[in-house]
Write a structure and sequence with these properties.
Elements: H1 10-17, E1 26-27, E2 36-37, H2 40-50, E3 53-54, E4 61-62, H3 65-76, H4 78-85, E5 91-92, E6 101-102, H5 105-116, H6 132-147, H7 162-174
Antiparallel strand pairs: 1-2, 3-4, 5-6
Length: 175
């Protein structure tokens, strides 16, 4: 039997130690998964099939390397965002056998619903609640804004998105 080294957080390690319930059923400790398994070998198979393609930036897991690659481009790649803002079709269809690209997330979503019969409620990028670190960063930005509020030339970016940068640049050009 091959042994697999799992890169789990401390919380996930604790959950893994406690994942056996009274009926010898195992639960996957990965947040949001909820898979129920009947053996440790089953868990290893499940983990390798479902959680090995995980983002090194935000740690979200995807079932395939292709979907992980799409996620990394769309969420973490500033070049992707710049191309989208210039009107390029950058949003790839999520199915491997479909090579269509779209100019917006909404257009791709409509394609997935119409052509591939995805449910209308499907969302590729589920909005997560901000982490403690993200909330602290936002609070620091708000505090900075209060401290420098009297300086009219101070510009504070609300977020690191391309839209925020575009907005900030347009504000600078009007000063």
């Amino acid at each position: 039997m091959a042994h697999v080294a799992l890169d789990l957080s401390e919380d996930e390690k604790i959950q893994l130690l406690d994942m056996e319930d009274h009926e010898r059923e195992f639960f996957c400790p990965i947040v949001g998964c909820g898979a129920r398994l009947t053996s440790l070998e089953g868990f290893e198979d499940h983990y390798n099939a479902c959680h090995t393609a995980s983002c090194s930036v935000c740690h979200k897991a995807y079932p395939t390397q292709r979907l992980l690659s799409i996620h990394v481009s769309e969420v973490h790649d500033s070049y992707f965002k710049a191309k989208v803002s210039r009107g390029y079709a950058m949003y790839e269809c999520l199915l491997e056998n479909c090579e269509l690209k779209f100019k917006s997330y909404k257009a791709r979503h409509q394609h997935l619903v119409d052509r591939h019969k995805f449910p209308t409620t499907f969302e590729f990028h589920k909005k997560a609640h901000p982490s403690k670190k993200q909330r602290q960063k936002q609070w620091r930005k708000q505090d900075l804004c209060k401290d420098e509020g009297s300086n009219t030339n101070t510009m504070l970016l609300e977020d690191d998105t391309m839209e925020g940068l575009t907005s900030a640049i347009s504000k600078l050009s009007t000063l």
